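We modelled the chain as a single entity of 77 amino acids. Its sequence is:
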Amino acid sequence: MKGRLARNANIDLGLAILASTSEPPHTCQTIAAYCGCSRQRIQQIEHKALRKLRATLDRNRTLREAFVNEFQGLSKK
């Protein structure tokens, strides 16, 4: 694979380039064509990214609630 990017690196680069443009939103099909992969692979990447984002938001919400509860317990003393 000398002189070539790994397949995922190619997709990452394509997505980064598309994200930095001021063009209207792209379909999975146009993104896939630009990145050189299938539409299904783009959908898999999208679903994985959304799962990670939701998990991070849930974790942050849980930490925030724990902090607020602890702070309220300290302020009552």
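As a brief sanity check on the tokenised model: The mean pLDDT is 81. The two ends are 64 Å apart (CA to CA).
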